[in-house]
Amino acid sequence: MKDKIFRASLFVAACLIIILTASIVYGLVSQSLDAFSNFGFGFITSSEWDSRNDVYSALPFIMGTLLTSVLALLFCIPFSLSVSLFNGEYFRGHRASTILSSVVDLLAGVPSIVFGLWGFYTLRPLMVEMGVNEQGFGVLLSSIVLAIMIIPYASSLSAEFLAMVPNDLKEGAYSLGATRLEVIQRVSLPAAGSGIFAAYVLAFGRALGETMAVTMLIGNTNNIPHGLGDTGNTMASIIANQFGEAGGLKLSSLMAIGLLLFLITASINFIAKYIMKMVRQ
Amino acid sequence: MKKSFTSTTRFRLAKSSFFFYLVCGFSLVTLIPLFLILWELIRKGYAQFNPSLFTEVAPTSMEAMLAHISGAPIPGGILNGITGTILILSLAILFAIPLGITTGVYLAEKQDKPVARLVRSLSDLLQGIPSIVIGVIVYIWVVKPMSSYSALAGSVALAIMMLPMVIRSTEESLKMLPTSLKEAGLALGGSYATVVLRILLPSAFSGLFTGSLLAISRVMGETAPLLVTVLGATTVNWDITRPVSAASLLIWEFYNDPNLAGLIWSTSLLLLLIILGINLCAKSIAKRWKIQ
């Protein structure tokens, strides 16, 4: 009897997770119906955001999100690749690697809002000095901070995959007279390639959903950013900025942006998980 | 030996060692931001780091401005934020950890059943949802029906964020236990529930504990979901149906109000130190556990 109750409660807990996820999706869809029925497909393709005339659209924010995240990914690659080679190849199991990986892991623990403060008070004046634009806010500043935020996610997973490359393969290459760099180029990186790719896809997914730091640094203007110095808004930052005072159609539009953001991050995560599953088999 | 190398070999070796130093250099540069952030917070925040930070509520903009004009440090502290964070976090822990552990046990026991597979992928999906999206969903679920921002809403949002991490760490640490442990328990005549509750979960305790600590430290500094669910409050409030403040929300308020900017640094320093402390603590427990 006791066993039956116990088994049932395990099952109920698992079902609760299913219900929870289903109702998140249902909530997002049902709340954003209003916006989609009002603006139709134009919600995604037009670029107007006007509270006074009650006209809303998502394109500027989709572009802002993609631009900052892609740039962040590009900026983070040299650093996270170095960290993962340091931990997974050159110093695997060494004390130096333990120290480096724990410090980089701590970086992942720093709250988004603290990164935002640091970007605002320390990096923004640098941007102004470099002449990016007058205020320093914008795409460049937010993608640099985003890049620092996603380094831990990209590097720790990639290091794991690099460490999984069989030693026989590398030793074979060494015995043929390859240098360390050649082994990395021709053996380790190709062997761990898809895993590393998946790690970067996951890191990209992180960058897409980052809210506070970007909200504080991107400048919060509702236009499509055209360059590094341009200000803009991302999908996450427009929600954080305008949600408090929203109602009616605007609220529904913000929910629709939330739904789009959810769909984008979910598919990115799905792709990454799928690649990793293939690699592990 | 070295003299016998041809010039191409020397070039290849030089290239290889150049790359090695490049990797070391970039890796060292990656360490810099964390220390820069810590240094900045300590340099600007230590002056405000006094007992009143923990015993007084956040000052109003007016009080801060008057203090600023007379050249005194900003009065008050962040007591309302600290109590708010404690209230929201403990409720979130209450929601997330029992449910997460139970689900994790289910996943570890029913590894390949279709339901278990579905739940596993859904928990991955939950992990990937941006925090602000969870915030707006909870706004629709809790804030709107109650027609008031509340600590309860904030804790629901944080609990949803904690769930996937707790589920994952429970499943992983249960899977690491040898099957013989469970078999021995069952052979001694223990019922299924007894074996899981008295043998498996206690053996996996440190794994569960580490996972839960990491989950707590991850949501502790979250600001975005709280922004749309608990709003903030100027007084200490223990009523879960009313708006409260939180340490991370106070940082956001101070950031938006130039008069209060002086308090940003001590608040951030406190929050960051607690989070990093929990992180380090969890890591050291995990390490000790793996050796055994």
Structural features, described:
In chain A, helix 8 (180-209) packs antiparallel against helix 11 (248-280). Chain A has a single domain (59-280), classed as Orthogonal Bundle (MetI-like fold), CATH 1.10.3720. By secondary structure, chain A is mostly helical. The longest helix of chain A has 38 residues, at 2-39. Helix content of chain A is 78%, strand content 0%. Chain B is mostly helical. Chain B has a domain at 85-262 and 275-291: MetI-like fold. In chain B, helix 4 (79-109) packs across helix 10 (205-220), helix 6 (131-146) crosses helix 7 and helix 8 (179-187) packs antiparallel against helix 9. Classes of the chains: A mainly alpha (281), B mainly alpha (292). The interface between A and B is large, with 82 and 82 residues.
Detail the poorly predicted runs of chain B: none
Instruction: Give the tally of structural domains of chain A.
Output: 1
Structural class of chain A: mainly alpha
CATH architecture of the domain at 85-262 and 275-291 in chain B: Orthogonal Bundle
- Return Rg of chain B in Å: 25 Å
Assigned CATH superfamily of the domain at 85-262 and 275-291 in chain B: MetI-like
How many whole angstroms does the radius of gyration of chain A measure? 22 Å
Determine the number of helices of chain B (DSSP H or I, runs of at least 4 residues). Answer: 13
Task: Look at the structure and give the CATH class of chain A.
Answer: Mainly Alpha
Tell me the number of helical segments of chain A per DSSP (H or I, 4 or more residues long). 11
Write down the secondary-structure element order of chain A. HHHHHHHHHHH
Residues in helices of chain A, as a percent range: over 70%
From the 3D structure, determine the CATH topology of chain A: MetI-like fold
Spans where pLDDT lies below 50 across 5 or more residues of chain A: none
Shape summary of chain A: globular
Largest sheet properties of chain A? none
Q: What distance separates the N and C termini of chain B?
A: 46 Å
Largest interface: A-B, 82 and 82 residues
